[in-house]
Amino acid sequence: MATKITMEFKKGDNVNHAFKMAIADYTTGGTLYFTAKPAVDNDATDATAIIDKAFTDAVVTTDATYATWTLAFVPGDITGVNFSNGERKLTYLGEFQFVSATGAVSTFPSDDNFIEVIIYADIKRGIS
User: Is 77 helix (H, G, I), strand (E, B) or coil?
Assistant: First the structure.
């Protein structure tokens, strides 16, 4: 049984997460994508994505075991999320996809146990 992975966001806040990939699966020059949607679909344009973000090697550190991305999300990375009727959180499905410099694609998680993405409502919008 796969371990359930959860990523949490507070709408309107900056949030940091990390992603680790086995160093044997990592090659420099690739791009890591993160996408979260209300449901699985066949839309290649990802039009229903509420988060659709790419990360480059600039945010990767490596050691003998892992390549680790430091993932900085800003308020503008979460789109189309609206709370109503006293809702306090909304839940979406997410996944990472690593595309190597040669175009090889690896998806995480590799099975159908998608990442649970929880976005919490806020009361005060950030002022920056």
Answer: helix
